[in-house]
Input
Amino acid sequence: MEKLIKTICGLFFILCLSSELNAGPEDLSIYPWTTQEMPISCGPLADVNKALDMAGYVQIEVAYARVGAIPTGEIAYAVITYASTDVEGHMIRTMETPAQNEKCILNLLFNYKVVTPKELTN
Output
């Protein structure tokens, strides 16, 4: 399970860095991807949720990845974003599977800002 999560995180990282990426389901197979080691931390779901709650993080968004990278596929995993109630602009993103055996912290982000399309063109 841990290797699967690391593989998924590696693919997510590559997607973020690729400026000419076609993200449609039929386009993903053209890229020469390899498994990467990612610095993520995983633990039992209840323990990670308790730590996030005790540290003052609140869930603000969730997105689902689907089997086969198609919109109608079964849910493969969820990426959940939490915001700090103590530090402005501090976010944590986690990932968990439907089995909910463990939860992984993918990244700790600072200076988070929502960018609108108008700001993207300037």
Q: What stands out?
A: Confidence is low (pLDDT under 50) at residues 15-23. The two ends are 43 Å apart (CA to CA). The chain has one domain: 2-121. Residues 40 and 73 are 26 Å apart (CA to CA).
